[in-house]
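Page 47, continued from p. 46.
Same chain as before, 217 aa.
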Amino acid sequence: MSIAAFLSHSHEDRKLASALKIEFSRYGIDTFIAHEDLAPSVEWEKHILRMLKKCKLFFALITESFVKSDWTDQETGFALAHAKVIVPLSMGITPYGFIGRFQAQKIREPLSETCWNVVRTLTEHSKIGHAVRLGAIDRFLESHNFDSANIFAPYLAKLKPFSEDELTRIVKGSIENSQIYGGFTARDVVRKLIREQADLVDTKLTKRFEELVEDNR
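Result:
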């Protein structure tokens, strides 16, 4: 389940925009950035308008260059008029005009931490919160090595409590991923989540997870 997003930015900030796109993609947020996603032959104004209409989530990368660009203000105005979920990303510039009422996320290094803070905030949004939560869960479940599973597990725990469907998804996915049930931190986090909401998970699943953990000690 992916969430269509649009990242409004100045061409001068294209490298940062590309890095943000990569980070958000890890959570299932499919972010459109014009300088990468437009083919030379495409009528770009029409395509940008089409992507603005399609997106549910609108990022405004507010920098000094953003403020000087006519296009970014027009894109932002469109997003506001069409009630998109607005997230200002600030590089030392305070959101202005009609988006001044939105809390900005300051961009800091590492960029992964900034994007996680955005994602965690969005998990509570009434419009897209559920989809964002699933994206965060799936990022953990798709861990390709012990380090990534162990690093992201504590982040996942910050999203509790989980619904029955969400917790079942976590346990089932953990059973299918040896990097989780074999990883010290990751498996301990999952075990704790199960203990805290044991009534929400099928005992057959929890038993199978515990068997895998014991076999990999």
